[in-house]
Design a protein that fits this description.
Blueprint lengths: L5 H21 L10 H7 L23 H4 L1 H4 L5 H19 L2 E4 L1 H16 L11 E5 L8 E2 L9 E2 L5 H8 L3 E6 L33 H8 L5 E5 L6 H7 L2 E4 L20 E5 L2 H11 L30 E5 L9 H16 L3 E5 L4 H20 L13 H8 L6 H9 L1 H11 L6 E5 L16 H12 L2 H6 L3 E9 L8 E9 L4 H14 L12
Helix pairs in contact: 1-12, 2-15, 5-6, 10-18
Length: 535
């Protein structure tokens, strides 16, 4: 290791130690191929049970509506799809002034979609599962003939020559595609800060970060500009901004949603998923986009075809929620801890049993995930690390990519090989006696944007904190649903900013996670709060 700089040498030595520590737990045999992720996902999959009758809990008094309610207006012809599109396009433009969350409005494209849907309505035709739903998406999915930017400088704008699978599936379901939304450079920053394209800002307070890297997706849903948005999640990039902006975000099981036609950061850990007002809106979006796709090398056929929207109102009484200690409780701000406790009590009131669960080496999983992301991202984006590409990439992203240049192939392959075996161990220990886990998403109050203007000890610590509670789940490939669970007033603020928590399940337990999330949102109003920007 004599050729490494001191800093990189320390990182490599640390990762070697982590790999050694986990090798024994992974239980791989000398000379044999390890359990594949696809095999481990199926072997540990959630098994459906008879969930009983629907809960009688009534919907909490709304601050505003989710799409599930609003779509009734289309069914009764009280509003047209073109009206919905115009309202959303106007709100996108207005919200962008304060948040910098929108890259480009796709007015002509969206209004063309809306006119076609109105013509179908006039002819008495059904519109499809998402008929007329106003959506906008993170600027990493390709749409034929339109630009895609990956959060980089203007000189890096590409023109797409094909459609991403998820966009094609949204089109088939009748959704509108209204805009390209802001993201951090190459989806590499969990804060929402972007040196080249300008920082995205939180609609609850423009002095605070929205979280990232799906910053624009969460900010525009929170601002009421669109009813849903697509995000990507490699280390928490759906769940972090959903939690900080007060909306609902789902990272599905690895391989459940195709990533074909979407920018990759780390193909081993990348996930695409929905961000929306409510769990039931996320269920609608997931229903439209889930499914095997041969065009995605990481796509995994699910063991069954779930109908995520069919059992949303089934009773959750008797379900078991596990509360992980240690890693997920260390260093929590007391205000965040109070929100977690309040959320658990809400579930207890709904008839759910709360249990403690065994600890797991989440810190080591986090380190191995970092290793894999750095190695895979560097191999993909080596060309933009050169001085000639200085106008594309900010200093922070360039530094992160540099960390991947010295990772030994043997270390990367060991980290990748342990994923399947460690997932099986996680399922057989931590998840053995519970249906899901409940944990915080971010351990602290929402940071200020200006902290991320420079690379400093504080900004580095905060970036680490932002992903510490989410990234291990990407390594395991398990699904996780972020839900608004409360609010707290950060130091120096007058507005109570959202605080989220996450429900974590076995592979392919999305229907259960969404069912639990929907039951929680019928009993609470946190997901229906309006930020000052949307008032």
């Amino acid at each position: 290791m004599g050729n490494f700089s001191d800093g990189r040498s320390e990182i490599i030595v640390k990762w070697h130690g982590v790999a050694e520590r986990l090798t024994a737990q992974a239980g791989t045999d000398l000379g044999l191929m390890p359990t594949s992720m696809a095999e481990a996902l199926h072997a540990t999959a959630h098994t459906e049970s008879n969930d009983g009758n629907a809960d009688e809990t009534s919907l909490a008094e709304p601050g505003w509506q989710d799409w599930w309610e609003k779509r009734e207006g289309l069914a009764t012809r009280a509003i047209s799809v073109q009206d919905l599109a115009e309202v959303s396009l106007t709100r996108l433009a207005q919200a962008n002034t304060a948040t910098n969350a929108c890259v480009e409005l796709l007015r002509e494209f969206a209004m063309g979609q809306a006119r076609q849907l109105d013509q179908r309505l006039a002819a008495g035709d059904a519109l499809g599962l998402l008929g007329g739903m106003p959506l906008a998406h993170k600027d990493l999915v390709h749409r034929t003939g339109y630009h895609v930017g990956y959060g980089l400088g203007q000189s890096a704008q590409l023109k797409a020559t094909s459609d991403a699978t998820v966009l094609r599936r949204f089109d088939e379901a009748g959704a509108l595609h209204l805009a390209r939304l802001q993201m951090t450079e190459l989806a590499f920053d969990p804060s929402g800060a972007n040196e080249m394209a300008g920082h995205c800002r939180n609609p609850w307070s423009v002095h605070r970060i929205p979280g990232g890297s799906s910053s624009g997706s969460a900010a525009m849903v929170a601002a009421g500009a669109v009813d849903g948005a697509l995000g990507s999640d490699t280390g928490g990039s759906i769940r972090i901004p959903a939690a900080l902006c007060g909306v609902t975000g789902l990272k599905p099981t690895y391989g459940l949603v195709s990533r074909a036609g979407a920018m990759s950061l780390s193909s081993s850990l990348d996930h695409l998923g929905p961000i929306a007002r409510s769990a039931r809106d996320c269920a609608l979006m997931l229903q439209a986009i889930a499914g095997y796709d041969i065009a995605d090398a990481g796509s995994v056929g699910a063991p069954r075809n779930d109908r995520y929207i069919d059992r949303l109102d089934a009773s959750i009484r008797g379900r078991r929620i596990g509360v992980p200690q240690g890693y997920f409780s260390d260093g929590l701000d007391p205000r965040i801890q109070a929100v977690v406790a309040q959320s658990l009590e809400s579930f207890r009131t709904l008839g759910v049993e709360i249990r403690e669960v065994p600890d797991f080496p989440y810190d080591a999983l986090n380190e191995l995930a970092i290793l894999m992301i750095r190695a895979e991202a560097t191999s993909l984006y080596e060309s933009v690390m050169s001085e000639d590409a200085a106008t594309m990439l900010g200093a922070f992203t360039r530094a992160r990519l540099q960390e991947g240049t010295q990772i030994p192939a043997s270390l990367y392959l060991r980290a990748a090989a342990m994923r399947g075996p460690l997932l099986q161990r996680f399922a057989h220990t931590v998840m053995a006696d519970v249906d899901v886990l409940l944990a915080p998403v971010f351990p602290s109050q929402t940071p200020c944007v200006d902290v991320f203007d420079t690379i400093s000890d504080e900004s580095s610590r905060l970036r680490g904190d932002l992903t510490r509670l989410t990234r291990p789940l990407n390594y395991l490939g398990v699904p996780s649903l972020s839900l608004p669970g409360g609010a707290c007033v950060p130091d120096g603020e007058s507005v109570a900013l959202p605080v989220g928590f996450q429900l974590i399940g076995r592979p392919y337990s999305e229907a259960l996670l969404l069912q639990l999330g929907h039951a929680y949102q019928k009993a609470t109003t946190w997901h229906l709060r309006k930020p000052p920007l949307a008032a």
